[in-house]
Amino acid sequence: MESKEQSQEQVKERADITEHPNIKKVVSLESFVFMACFAVLFGVLGTKMGAINMLNTMMQTAYQLLMDTVFYIMAIAVLAGALSGLFTEFGVVAIINKILSPLMKPLYDLPGASVVGILATYLSDNPAILTLADDQGFRRYFKRYQLPALTNIGTAFGMGLIITSFMIGITSPTGESFVGPALIGNLGAIVGSIVSVRLMLVFTAKEYGKTEYCEVEGINAIMYTDYRMVRPGSAASRFMSAMLEGGKSGVGMGVAIIPGVVIICTFVMMLTNGPSETGTYTGAAYEGIALLPAIGDKLDFILKPLFGFASSQGVSVPITSLGAAGAAIGLVPKLVKDGMATGNDVAVFTAMCMCWSGYLSTHVAMMDSLGYSKMTGKAIISHTIGGLCAGVAAHWLYVLFSMIG
Questions:
Q1: Per residue in 13-49, pLDDT tens?
Q2: Under a CB-based contact definition with an 8 Å cutoff, are residues 306 and 392 in contact?
Q3: What is the pLDDT of residue 260?
Q4: Both ends of the chain: CA-CA distance in Å?
Q5: Beta bridge partners of residue 143, listed in sequence order
Q6: CB-based contacts of 144: which residues, under 8 Å, 6+ apart?
Q7: CA distance 214 to 150
Q8: C-alpha distances in Å from residue 30, one per residue of 24, 27, 33, 34, 129
Q9: Of 328, 327, 291, 293, whose CA–CA distance to 309 is shortest?
């Protein structure tokens, strides 16, 4: 009898295991599909470049990206982190919040408190919105259909300060300043964010209606509108603490982007660049099979009027930003140096890198954290369209400002 009960329990446990979403059979279709894709990718690269050259180029490119790009981005992140820490500590962010809050309802159909999320993600990264959304005092301002859109609006401004600072700091071989294009790119990102959020709200309103507020536990959220938290001590000690702690967060962000920049950028560059100047493969850094430009040439009749790219290789930047904004901006200096990107391209890159900022790698986790996993597909669709609109808006705004200037 006891043996039969144990057997039934084992069957039940086995059924529970097989129903677990993160457990798969040892042998499944997924494994064979992955191996096929893996073999095709490295087969194409190896056949075109030669196996030894492919491996040497991969390692050399990864090393150059780490030394020349990652540490530069980290330095920018440290400075941007220190600046954001000071702005938060001494009330600049709070004042901006007060000024911008009345615009949120007509532009985004979101409560004024959501501007805090914009500022938080602009000064840091996409997931910063989740810390706010988890706070009962912040949630109480939102209706249920509005809360999932925080993923879209937060992602649209993720790493904004770092991306903008990085673009401004790029040196143009013609002496062109990229301050204007970077700021125009910010305007493009705003347009993209409005499109993304508004589309998302259409989906969520159909699902949840427009009347029900988010459930909260009655915590007073007055600090989000009338008060702000500061560090203890004198103004001088607060200044030093805010600056150093902000810089420290920049170091953390700089370290966090290393895998994305090194891995994604390496493969994107190998798919973007061609062989050496002699037309042969030598195993040097930044060589590749020029696949993405070939695709870009085929789509040039669409890309040119929409984004105005100076070169078909420019398409590699927004494609990379789908997975990692840090990796995407790492591609820009070389494009500018080689004359393949101009001020218009920088404006478009800024807008799309900000608006997309690696959303394919964060949207699923963010929607799950908010408790709206079933709306993830809608969020991704909305944000894909929003990012494209951001690039188009940046291009035509750049054309308009160039005509006026």
A1: 565 566 666 777 778 888 899 999 999 999 999 999 9
A2: yes
A3: 76
A4: 89
A5: 213
A6: 204, 208, 209, 212, 213, 214
A7: 13
A8: 9, 8, 5, 6, 33
A9: 293
**Mean of pLDDT values over 261-281:** 85
DSSP per residue, 227-291? -----SS-HHHHHHHHHHHHHHHHHHHHHHTHHIIIIIHHHHHHHH--S-TTSS--S-TT----H
Q: What letter does residue 65 receive in the DSSP assignment?
A: I
Q: Quick one: pLDDT band at residue 6, thresholds 50, 70, 90?
A: low
> In the structure, what pLDDT confidence band is assigned to residue 187 with cuts at 50, 70 and 90?
very high
Residue 375 counted as domain residue: yes
How far, in Å, CA of 391 to CA of 318, rounded? 9
CB environment 65-85: b (16+ within 10 A), e (fewer): beeebbebbbebbbbbbbbbb
- The tens digit of pLDDT for each residue in 367-402 reads 887 888 889 899 999 999 999 999 999 999 999 999
Please check whether residue 368 lies inside any domain of the structure: yes
Average pLDDT over residues 287-306: 86
Cβ count near 171 (within 10 Å) = 10
CA dihedral 193, 195, 200, 205 (to 10 degrees): 120
Measured in residues, the chain has a length of 405
**Does some domain include residue 153?**
yes
Q: How many domains does the chain have?
A: 1
pLDDT winner (highest mean) among 58-72, 118-132, 256-270: 58-72
Q: Which domain holds residue 163?
A: 48-404
Residue 294 CB contacts under 8 Å (≥ 6 apart), including other chains:
312
Residue 219, pLDDT score: 45
What is the mean predicted confidence (pLDDT) over 107-132?
83
In a domain, 36, yes or no: no
